[in-house]
Amino acid sequence: MSRTPARLAVMGAGLIGRRHIQHILAEPAAELTAVVDPGDAGREIAARNGVPWHASLRDLLAAGRPDGVVVATPNQVHVENALEAVAAGVPVLVEKPIADDPVEGERLVAAAEAAGVPILVGHHRRHNPIMRAAREIVASGRLGRIVAVNALFWLYKPDDYFGPAWRREPGAGPVFLNLIHDVDNLRYLIGEIVAVHAVESNAVRGHAVEETSAIILQFASGALATVSVCDTVVAPWSWEMTTGENPAYPQADEACYLLAGTEGSLSLPKLEVWSNAGPRSWWEPLQRARLGVAPEDPLALQIRHFAAVIRGEEAPLVSGREGLRTLEVVAAIKRASATGQRVILSPPAGS
Ligand SMILES: NC(=O)c1ccc[n+]([C@@H]2O[C@H](COP(=O)([O-])OP(=O)(O)OC[C@H]3O[C@@H](n4cnc5c(N)ncnc54)[C@H](O)[C@@H]3O)[C@@H](O)[C@H]2O)c1
Question: DSSP readout, 18-86?
């Protein structure tokens, strides 16, 4: 059945905004209607794709209302930009993090809920077929009860990455920029996080921002995760370097997450399930089964999903509230590192 494509505007035509534009152009269920970005690059991208250019969302809305807007602007203006769209009744896909602090994020989520306008947060990895399959394996009970998790974000960011001063400052480190994706993945797989411990270090580069963080996450289910983050080591064990999700990174045939349950364990992204054929015991041989999934680009799937949410056919996979909770966990990790104290998270609103 053919449908009228969802008319989407993209706000912020930078690194990720340009990728959203490509996926909208390639997606039959969506259509690019405008580019909003005060910079010259935004004007040029709009012209190249034959769509109107606007310097601000206000100008876009004055010219006509799109069916949805993708907010891919810097973190500091996500709330302001998304609130403006919500006030106009336009559904929003806002890039992660939903806000640069949880209080502001709550303001946005509350406004969207009150207005009944859907918000999606760009934690696109949940759309990756690897994540969907892993979640099904966990939910199937094949692993028994998940008790322990080990997750790694280890890679080397080259020296020129730290050229712009803001990347050396607090807030721009791998916990806030990168680990937020892994926290969202782990919440999607294991459930709510209720407390965190963390210690961080800048021992190698000596920048004001962290380069290493050792984290313990405590889940409502009782599961415990150890999570290790470091962007100053030459190593292949991260989502970025193992999944092939983003072709910009070389891919290693290695694991980045290990989930261990009372009946078996699972490694991601390979989706290998380890179990005993006979009785469960460390004396018994382990068998390994590898599940295959066809790769699909999660950013493309996220745009298709946004169109389906706009048509009222699907509920947001990563709602504003979900994106906010992931941000709250990351803020708690930073607080735990700063204070040396365990941080207990208050239950999510509505739970
Ligand atoms: N999901 C992911 O994997 C992923 C990857 C990269 C970035 N991001 C997120 O996407 C956002 C943008 O990151 P980026 O790397 O593309 O940044 P960028 O600096 O490359 O691009 C930001 C763009 O926004 C424009 N802009 C700034 N203020 C604006 C406004 N008020 N209205 C319209 N346009 C405005 C700038 O001119 C620039 O072109 C950040 O929140 C980042 O965290 C997400």
Answer: HHHHHHHHH-TTEEEEEEE-SSHHHHHHHHHTT--EESSHHHHHHH---SEEEE-S-GGGHHHHHHHHH
